Amino acid sequence: MRSPNAPAATSAPAAPDGGPGRRDAGATKAAILRAARHLLARHAHGDITLKAVAERAGVSPPLIMKYFGNKEALFAQVMSFDEDAAALLDAPVADLGRHMVRHVLVSQSERGADPLLRIVFAPFHGSQGDTLRTNFRTQVSDRLALRLDGPDAGLRAELAVSMLLGLGVMYGIARGGELRATPLDDIVTRYAPAVQACLTP
């Protein structure tokens, strides 16, 4: 019997090029990682099966094994923030607040994903939650702090990241009506200066 917290089977999304047989390796791996991230943000790690990931990604469980080896190897990549942090921090420090706010909003509104939000669910993942926390600290907060000049760089980096997490929670989880009805450019204009103030005080 399936655990009541386990992800239910969902209809497999169509492959972007017309079918799993024609999907290239890079697109397949990306789809699997997106599916696993989606499930990790909604279910405990122990309740997620390769079958659920495969169904959401539109592939077969053996194909996941082919590309990643096993569930633990797959989720080792899912729990890494390295690639997301690279995109999030891809701007000069003088423009970084605006870039990061826009990146979070565009990720949420256009891709249904968030580069940081899975850290919010760390308490639900047991020992895997410790891995998420360590990765988040070293790959996101500490990485940002290294780019900042002046005193208290670590504190300022964590404050800036906290603002991004709050924005992501309100937009993607609480689904604030006023926030989601406001044009993204307007939100960026209002919110980015507060984030930037932590980066360049």
Automatic annotation (TrEMBL):
Region annotation Disordered: where it falls in the sequence: 1-26
UniProt keyword terms in alphabetical order: DNA-binding, Transcription, Transcription regulation
Transmembrane parts of this sequence: none
Highest taxon above the source species: Bacteria
Name recorded for this polypeptide: TetR/AcrR family transcriptional regulator
DNA-binding region: 49-68
A GO term, aspect molecular function: DNA-binding transcription factor activity
Composition-biased stretches (Low complexity): 1-17
Residues of the HTH tetR-type domain: 26-86
Coiled coil: none
InterPro entries on file: Homeodomain-like_sf, HTH-type_TetR-like_transc_reg, HTH_TetR, Tet_transcr_reg_TetR-rel_C_sf, TetR_C_16
